[in-house]
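User: Here's a structure from my thesis project, written as structure tokens. My advisor, Dr. K., wants to see whether a designed sequence matches the one we expressed. Can you design one independently, without my sequence as a hint?
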């Protein structure tokens, strides 16, 4: 029977080279050193067994050197002290985040000034005797970047891309049971060969590792494809394509039983097919099923189904394979996206896999947290820029109802890049959330014959593997692009010879989608550009992409490419473009434009690196949500500006807003929301107190927000997104740390350094504060709040019990939070 064990725990990690580990061998299975069991580990008799020992003795005699080691011929150097510099880690892990910031490397700003290097992971593990006779495969969801893997003295393989999943069949290399001894896996990770992207890419085994065991007759890896052919008259027609691999050397007769279960585990449909597959061969079989009264996957009701594939051989089930999917149709028409036949305005953000405290090594819970934050903003679509994501991100989008544009890293049709494309398509094509594949981003396609040929090949391959979803390429210019949906980046601001409206007019058959927009710089809680501190004004920065200062008066301009307001109005004028994909939902490390050092993160996010809302978050809420929104900026702590005018902005989707300072009305302004006007502004002469915005619809008050002048920082406040954790060593509580005044109000200018102490059944996984110019380590025990906020990630251990988090700072009242970590049965 198939099992899939998580293989994330109890790895040893070493930063830097550990000696020379070879990949070539003169004799089978004889690479020594760290790739095999060491003295204190349990040897398999053969590894240093009879044959090798005799050879070693002969050579010792011939050379007259009693200390000669056979490994000098067969294998690798092992450092003298094998234990120096090795630490125990669990995965996912990003070693780059543990390095000190450095300005040394060329182009360091793109990688957030965290240097690359080489890191080794080594794990000793046992395989029970009863597993002999099963196929055993090790699966890596993602390793950054170039990786090499050795198992028990054999070199197993290299993998180049940090963004694609890969696996190795290690059945024959393993040692089974007590008698054979300990198994050793060694993984070398190396970022020194060059970056794949222009953003922070981290380093190490940053996604999950799995050990999968199954019969020699089994569903192939990523071997199912479930698709909705049509839905009508309360029936859905489903095709299930199943690829079976027969790794026996003889022909096998078997039956495939495919069952579709609803979310309560109730059988919705089932079918069986008899098949025969030759030895060491594969076979793909199509089965048609119908589901009555299907619960469709939609954004408001993201219903999931489980397709269970059972292989029966001589009446026994030899493999059971589960595919989680949804029943739904997607179609991109000339006026945009249709999900289950209904138009959906795409309210999208582009994002990298990166977060405070963990870098690229996001625990599953953090993926989910990020998606929830985006949904709260009204966002309904996520572009995986510019590479396939971790599987758990897609699972969160499936569960929570977020559409996904999944993106190929590089649009090249070399064999290696086609393999990467295939791995994305085969791995991910059952996710109902994915509505479109993007084959590339801003490639230099226009006018190049070579690029056209490459795109044609890639397009044909992608359509063959998944004929159900449209393809796009995110481009700055549409010249020469032949693709289902013309993806346009920054059509609101990049002025070529033609506007996108004119281009569309000249291409009456085209379908167009905005694949990237806005690129607006801002820093949470900052209202004036601060190049020395690496921070941008929330009104809009005066600095261009290349870091040049523009002459735009006090308030700043578009920052990067355009303001959120300009992009939204552009969309309203060009509704055939499907919606917006804002660059980006969250800040990420690296790509520190417009500044370089001391900035270490980007400034594009609507939310900062910790997921705390910047002011523009409320602008997007006001264009993307129906419920009444009103938001005031800036904060109201400007004692140094008493008597001087302060620019006040209000974001709203209501028709009128009244501004009130200390009980005195400063007037009512109308917002022409239908025409895309969501930002109102006032010049207010500063006096401390309470500034309030009161929003009206049809003359009725529907929402209000206030900013109060606070007194000094007085106390720390901790708040968890959930106080119950699973005691699985993986679950995470996301804790918002704020500094408050005596009245409990957030102090928006506080920057106190907070010390964290964790006791009980949990550990501090990481810290952050969203400040692009902060160089405190995400992996320490202390972090300053930035404009009132910091973030702590606390991870469970595998023992149930309480976890206490104490936060203290000189001169502030401390806070203590208790979390409960429970066994899964208790939750
Ligand atoms: C785009 C690019 C993104 C990011 C962005 C910054 O052109 O696709 O990856 O670099 O610019 O504005």
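Assistant: Designed independently from the structure alone:
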């Amino acid at each position: 029977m198939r099992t899939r064990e998580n293989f994330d725990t109890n790895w040893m990690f070493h930063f830097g080279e550990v000696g020379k580990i070879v990949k070539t061998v003169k004799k089978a299975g004889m690479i020594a050193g760290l790739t095999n069991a060491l003295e204190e580990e349990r040897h398999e008799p053969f590894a240093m067994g009879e044959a090798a020992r005799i050879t070693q003795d002969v050579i010792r005699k011939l050379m007259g050197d009693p200390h000669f080691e056979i490994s000098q011929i067969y294998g690798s150097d092992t450092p003298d002290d094998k234990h120096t510099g090795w630490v125990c880690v669990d995965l996912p892990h990003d070693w780059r985040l543990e390095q000190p910031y450095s300005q040394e490397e060329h182009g360091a700003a793109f990688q957030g000034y965290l240097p690359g290097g080489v890191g080794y992971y080594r794990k000793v593990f046992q395989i029970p005797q009863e597993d002999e006779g099963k196929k055993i495969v090790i699966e890596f969801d993602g390793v950054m970047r170039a990786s090499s893997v050795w198992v028990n003295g054999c070199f197993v393989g290299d993998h180049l891309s940090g963004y694609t999943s890969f696996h190795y069949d290690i059945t024959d290399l393993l040692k089974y049971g007590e008698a054979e001894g300990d198994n050793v896996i060694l993984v070398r990770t190396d970022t020194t060969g060059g970056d794949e992207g222009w953003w922070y890419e981290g380093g190490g085994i940053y996604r999950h590792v799995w050990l999968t065991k199954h019969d020699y007759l089994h569903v192939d890896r990523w071997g199912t494809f479930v698709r909705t052919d049509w839905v009508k008259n309360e029936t859905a027609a489903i095709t299930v394509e199943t690829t079976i691999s027969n790794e026996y050397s003889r022909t096998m007769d078997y039956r495939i039983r495919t069952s579709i279960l609803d979310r309560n585990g109730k059988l919705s449909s089932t079918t069986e097919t008899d098949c025969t597959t030759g030895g060491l061969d594969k076979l793909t079989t199509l089965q048609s099923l119908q589901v009555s009264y299907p619960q469709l996957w939609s954004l408001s009701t993201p219903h999931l189904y489980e397709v269970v594939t059972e292989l029966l051989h001589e009446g026994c089930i030899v493999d059971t394979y589960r595919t989680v999917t949804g029943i739904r149709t997607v179609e991109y028409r000339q006026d945009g996206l249709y999900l289950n036949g209904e138009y959906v305005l795409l309210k999208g953000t582009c994002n990298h896999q990166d977060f405070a405290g963990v870098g690229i090594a996001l625990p599953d819970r953090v993926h989910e947290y990020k998606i929830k934050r985006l949904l709260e903003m009204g966002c309904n679509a996520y572009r995986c820029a510019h590479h396939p994501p971790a599987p758990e991100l897609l699972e969160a989008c499936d569960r929570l109802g977020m559409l996904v544009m999944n993106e190929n890293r590089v649009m090249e049709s070399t064999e290696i890049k086609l393999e990467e494309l295939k791995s994305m398509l085969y791995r991910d094509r059952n996710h109902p959330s994915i509505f479109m594949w993007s084959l590339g981003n801003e490639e230099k396609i226009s006018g190049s014959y070579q690029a056209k040929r490459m795109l044609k090949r890639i397009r044909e391959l992608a359509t063959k593997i998944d004929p159900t979803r449209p393809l796009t390429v995110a481009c700055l210019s549409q010249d020469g692009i032949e693709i289902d949906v013309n993806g346009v980046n920054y059509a609101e601001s990049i002025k070529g010879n033609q506007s996108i409206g004119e281009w569309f007019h000249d291409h009456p058959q085209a379908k167009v989608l905005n694949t990237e927009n806005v690129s607006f710089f801002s820093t949470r809680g900052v209202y004036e550009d601060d190049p020395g501190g690496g921070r941008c004004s929330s009104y809009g920065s005066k600095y261009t992409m290349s870091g040049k200062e523009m002459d735009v008066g006090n308030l700043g301009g578009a920052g990067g490419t355009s303001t959120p307001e300009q992009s939204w109005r552009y969309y309203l004028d060009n509704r055939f473009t499907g919606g917006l994909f804002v660059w980006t939902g969250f800040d990420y490390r690296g790509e520190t434009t417009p500044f370089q050092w001391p900035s270490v993160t980007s400034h594009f996010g609507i939310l900062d690196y910790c997921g705390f809302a910047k002011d523009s978050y409320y602008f997007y809420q006001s264009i993307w949500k129906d419920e009444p929104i009103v938001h005031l900026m800036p904060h109201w702590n400007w004692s140094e500006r008493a008597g001087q005018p302060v620019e006040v902005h209000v974001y709203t989707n209501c028709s009128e807003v009244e501004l009130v300072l200390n009980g005195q009305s400063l007037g009512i302004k109308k917002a022409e929301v239908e025409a895309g006007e969501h930002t109102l502004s006032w010049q207010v002469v500063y006096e401390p107190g309470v500034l309030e915005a009161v929003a009206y619809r049809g003359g009725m008050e529907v929402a209000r927000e206030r900013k109060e002048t606070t007194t000094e920082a007085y106390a720390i406040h901790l708040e968890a997104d959930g106080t119950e954790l699973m005691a699985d060593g993986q679950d995470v509580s996301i804790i918002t740390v704020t500094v408050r005044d005596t009245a409990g109000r957030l102090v928006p200018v506080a920057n106190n350094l907070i010390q964290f102490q964790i006791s009980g059944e949990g550990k501090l996984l990481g810290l952050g504060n969203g400040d692009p110019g902060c160089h405190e380590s995400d992996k320490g025990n202390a972090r300053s709040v930035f404009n009132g906020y910091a973030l702590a990630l606390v991870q469970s251990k595998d023992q149930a019990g309480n976890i206490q988090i104490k936060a203290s700072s000189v001169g502030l009242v401390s806070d203590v939070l208790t979390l409960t970590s429970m066994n899964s049965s208790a939750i």
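When you compare it with your expressed construct, this may help: The mean pLDDT is 94.
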